[in-house]
Amino acid sequence: MAVRTPLKNDSGNVKEMSSAEVDQIVDQIVYQYSLNPSVALSVVGSGGSLGTITDTRLQAGAASTSTTAFPSEATTAEPSTVTVNYSKIDSSNASVTPTTDTGKTWPVYYNASGHIQAMSLQDVKDTFLHPAIDLLTAATTTTQQAGTYFISTTSSVAGATEVSGSATPIFLDTRADTTLYTADGIGETLDQPTTITSFYLQRVDGSDTSYTVPFYVNASNHLQEFDSATFESLLQGWIRYTAASSTDGYSISYNLGTSGSGNTRGSGMGDTRLNGSGNYQTRFVNTDDYRAQEFPNGTATTINTYYLRINKS
Length: 313
What we know:
The chain is an alpha+beta fold and 313 residues long.
């Protein structure tokens, strides 16, 4: 590992940057990544590449009727489970061709002999790119994770953009609405759900940061300060390439499920369901029409909790 200290212009003098100034460049790299993430998540109708997560709920058993007496509880159908699958998050990696390292592409530093030398690509990875990936893949969702994703329980979150653009949930936790089932309504509609929680995919917004531009060696072998636009374009190309294509253990990926590697991002998505064995109810319509039905009942219980995770690998 070769972390270098880039050189800067200090009122006409060549001076080494402070660690805080190096950190500012790393923060700028994060911002550049947020402008065009190379590992992008999107919200799709179905068939998302991050796989399937499942919401379950109880529904009433089918109503029973008799012309002589109320059907017994033993003969009425029990509540059953409704299963709804969600596969709405798709992941894609951009194909990025960054600027080729010519040997004079990157900032310069003082080597062990006290001579000025251009950073190698490995130096740049160790000093700038890999620390930026470390920030991007952290568990938090501040501007230092800009351009990466998390799950929220509201469609509008300060400092983030809802990915679908139309407040589309990527998962709904539903349960049977027991208030809608009444004896007077037998035979009731079997499935009468209510939404408990909606979950949305969010992307962290970036924040442009100030930083000190370093020196590099120009075509005439003179020291020259980077033009900001040139430097930022260089950084953006390489952080996008690193995130999508690194073979050094610094690529970014996401997974979705009850378990997996990486840091959890945002809210866990709970699938809750009533745990009762059925609320037996009867309805007398007339002397030739006796009815019975079992409605969903019980206490809400968490069946599974799903998480979006970001991984560095």
